[in-house]
Amino acid sequence: MTTPLALIFYENLLIGNQLINRLRDLGYRVKPVTDLSELAALAAVEKPLVFVAELAGLADRVCAAVRALRGQADTAHVPVLAIQHRTKKRADKKLAEAARGAGVTLVASQAAFLNQLPQLLEQVLELR
Hints:
Layout: E1 5-9, H1 13-25, E2 29-32, H2 39-46, E3 50-55, H3 59-70, E4 80-84, H4 89-102, E5 106-109, H5 110-127
Parallel strand pairs: 1-2, 1-3, 3-4, 4-5
Helix pairs in contact: 1-5, 2-3, 3-4
């Protein structure tokens, strides 16, 4: 049996390293996504259990990549967990709505990700 794969996209190196380490500690293989335009093709080949993405400066590209992921029959089922930074309340709400509209399964704050990652993964995997 192979270990589950998590594809991840991050902009902030510190968050990325923390996330990689936490996922590995939970028994996941981790593969960073460096080109969001290739997410759906990569997911079709790699068959990840989950895609985890940071919603920051490239949030629009993340949303477009998730729409493409959802648009393919062989990748539409992959749960997407998004990390949202705290900015302004109104901007946070609009970004979370846009992400969910694109097909993100669950949006959580950075603090929740680092403190509750096992529970968030369990929740997102149950939803699918």
